[in-house]
Amino acid sequence: MTLLERKLFGPGPSNPYPEATDALSRPILGHLDPAFVALMDETCDRLRQVWGTDNARTLPLSATGSAGMEAAFVNTVSDGDVVVVGVNGLFGQRMCEVAARCGAEVVPVEHDWGTPVDVQRLVDAHPSPKIIAAVHAETSTGARSDIAALGEAVRRDRPDALLLVDAVTSIGGIELRADDWGVDLGYAGTQKCLGVAPGLAPFTIGERAWERRVEKPRSWYLDLGLLGGYVGEAGAKGGQRTYHHTAPVAMVASLHAGLGRILEEGLPQVWARHEAAGRQLQDGLEAMGLELFAQAGSRLPDLTTVKVPDGVDSAAVRKELLERHGIEIGAGAGPYAATVWRIGLMGHNARPDAALLVLAALGEVLDRSAG
Questions:
Q1: CA angle in degrees (0–180, nearest 5) for 115-118-123
Q2: pLDDT at residue 240, rounded to an integer
Q3: Which of 47, 94, 65, 53 is nearest to 184 (CA)?
Q4: Alpha-carbon gap, residue 300 to 150, rounded angstroms
Q5: In b/e form, how buried is each residue of 21-35, taking b as 16+ CB within 10 angstroms?
Q6: Dist CA 252 CA 60 (whole Å)
């Protein structure tokens, strides 16, 4: 089968940083080899830097971001616990589903898709929740919510509640300061702004959440107490390693390299690069006469949502972009599957040339469809 090289400008995965790809070709080490354990520990330390946390229990889970979501809930929710979820898109809905399966009494706080979560509505939704959860960067809509403000409100009005954050599309692309913002636990994915292939879920949990965890969660594989004996906590505290599972050593090496690339450039510089590329793309789309979907003032720079023009076949345009130009953009999600496009400039793709390329190709395809 012919190997194809695509320009991945959808909602993820993105094209990896070259350093992350190169790392996949290195010799495989055993998952208990001292050299690999040292690499894993350094990877966890690098994750602490991109999360903006000192949490000892910060680690890459051996699964994709959705497993990070499940790990967050299965380790903290017991039957009957109240979980308030800000729902402003598909992944807020998924939080509700996962929390319910863990036995929670879920209180969804619904918002229009494309808008940020309303901080005060979340903290006022229930007088004594165990968890208040929100998506930082809603991948389905391209909207950013103010987690700093939410954390401040939770500490002020619901100090006993834990703040849980989905950072799948924000980590490595926009400002994220877990400790400063009062985030108690969070999960992410490697395949977006971190510029690494899909397969790992960067995860962090603070002391408050750890003290209130489920001692024996429903999931053995995602039991953070067991995982901490091998990675994350064990490395940070110099503890004795205990076997849990065979770590995906090549993926960890790739994540280590991708994080190194980001930290060498500097997190503020990486955030600024994503901001500049996203602004260039969004300005260009509006100059073409297209209408952006997410609410102005809360638009993500790394994931842009744009309305499909009336009379245009969304799927046909995406198919032509892929077949003629090797460019992937994403369809919308949920009720907007056929009426919105999602265009990501994430990680290695957050560059001016990528913005210009997708603008030129989309303009050409739309001109052809109109002709």
A1: 155
A2: 64
A3: 53
A4: 18
A5: bebeeeeebebeeee
A6: 8
Q: Alpha helix locations (H) across the chain? A: 18-23, 34-51, 65-74, 90-101, 119-124, 147-157, 178-181, 207-211, 224-227, 233-237, 249-265, 267-287, 314-325, 352-370
Residue 46's nearest CA partner among 58, 35, 36 is 58
What SS3 state is found at 87?
A: strand
DSSP state of 288: T
Tokens of residue 46, six digits: 């690098």
The order of strands in the sheet holding 330-331 is 303-307, 340-344, 330-331
| Residue 125, token pair as written in the block | 């939704």
The neighbour count for residue 315, using CB atoms within 10 Å, is 11
Write the DSSP string, 180-218: HHT--EEE--SSSTT---S--EEEEE-HHHHHTS-SS-S
Torsion of Cα atoms, 218 then 220 then 225 then 226, to 10° = 170
pLDDT digits (tens, 9 = 90+) for 86-125: 999 999 999 999 999 999 999 999 999 999 999 999 999 9
Q: What is the pLDDT of residues 255-303, one digit of tens each?
A: 999 999 999 999 999 999 999 999 999 999 999 999 999 999 999 999 9
Strands 143-144 vs 330-331: parallel, antiparallel or unpaired: unpaired
Sequence-ordered list of residues with C-beta below 8 angstroms from that of 3, at least 6 positions apart, any chain = none
Q: How far is CA 14 from CA 58, 116, 263, 282, in A?
A: 23, 24, 19, 18
Comparing 140-144, 147-151, 244-248, 280-284, the range with the smallest average pLDDT is 244-248
- Sign of the CA dihedral with 137 first, then 138, 140, and 141 last: negative
